[in-house]
Each structure stands twice: as C-alpha cells, then as structure tokens.
Amino acid sequence: MRSQSLSDLPIEKASTYSSFIARESTYADLDLLFRPNPATADINPIRDIEAVKKSVMNLVLTNFNERPFQPEIGSGVRGLLFEPADELTMYSIEDAIRMVILNFEPRVRILSIDSEFLDNENAYRMTLEFQVLSTEQVASTTLVLERLR
C-alpha cells in the first residue's frame, strides 16, 4: 500500500493538512508577566523564538524539587551563587546550564555560553547563544544571576 503525499489529497484537505503542519512547528506559551491585551483583555501569548527563550530562562532559574511531581527538573544554579566567586564557580554554573538545557529542552542546541563576573554587583552575566532546531534560527538571551540573600 502506497502512502499519500500532500499532492495526492483534494485541494480542501491539502490546505487544511498543510496549515496543521505549519501550526505544529510553532511554539506558544503564556507571557508570565500577565500583561493583558488592550483590545481583548486577554493575556498575550508569546510565540516561536520568544517562547523558546522564556523556556530556556525558566529552566535555568528552576531549582531541583521546585516543580511538583517533577523533582529532577532544575539546574541548581541558585545554590552555586553562594559559592566563592571564582572561575571554578563560573564554569560550574556554565556546566549546570548546559546540562539542564541538554536534558530538558530538546528544541534547542547550545552554541555558546559567555560568562562574566560582575564585581560591583556580585553577580554573573551569562549570555546563552542557541539554535532552535526546527527552524534553525539562532537566538541569544542574557541572564544576570545574583544572590538574593
């Protein structure tokens, strides 16, 4: 039995099927700032590359045992911020970020992580450059990691 291709389908089914494929490859999430749309008063969704960036940031900032019923998801970065501020700690943070993204974000491939210690603020600036695998777009996001206590 031969499988059908998109060109074998009637026009109305082919357009419906192709729009389904197009919708399937996009990513959507809620804006966690919960800003309402002024026209509809509904919460604005974020889509595509912005949704992936927010997902990466959320994974990096999540502690182990923070998500109910998913204790293995987390990076442990917050705990590393209380270690002595040296290059070993900076490399440990980079490694934790790589591991959490490798294990829990299959949509991206990390290209580079640039880290910098901010002396005056006692914080780390981490710039992550990654590629979204489905679209092959390259994106970057910057996080400033600092102790809260």
What is this structure, in a nutshell?
This protein has 149 residues and is of the alpha+beta class. 34% of the residues lie in helices and 25% in strands.
Fold topology:
Layout: H1 11-24, E1 28-30, E2 45-47, H2 48-61, H3 77-80, H4 87-104, E3 108-118, E4 123-132, E5 137-146
Antiparallel strand pairs: 1-2, 3-4, 4-5
CATH topology of one domain: Nuclear Transport Factor 2, Chain: A
Along the chain, the helix and strand elements come as: HEEHHHEEE
Give the end-to-end Cα distance, rounded to a whole number of Å.
66 Å
Number of helices: 4
Percent of residues in β-strands: 15-25%
CATH class of one domain: Alpha Beta
Choose one word for the global shape. globular
Describe this structure in words.
The chain has four helices and five strands. The protein has 149 residues and is an alpha+beta fold. It has a domain at 48-146: Nuclear Transport Factor 2, Chain: A (Roll). It has a three-stranded antiparallel beta sheet with strand order 3-4-5, with helices on one face. β3 (108-118) and β4 form a beta hairpin.
Structural features:
two-stranded antiparallel ribbon, globular, Nuclear Transport Factor 2, Chain: A, 5 strands, disordered N terminus, 25% strand, alpha+beta, 149 residues, 3-stranded antiparallel β-sheet
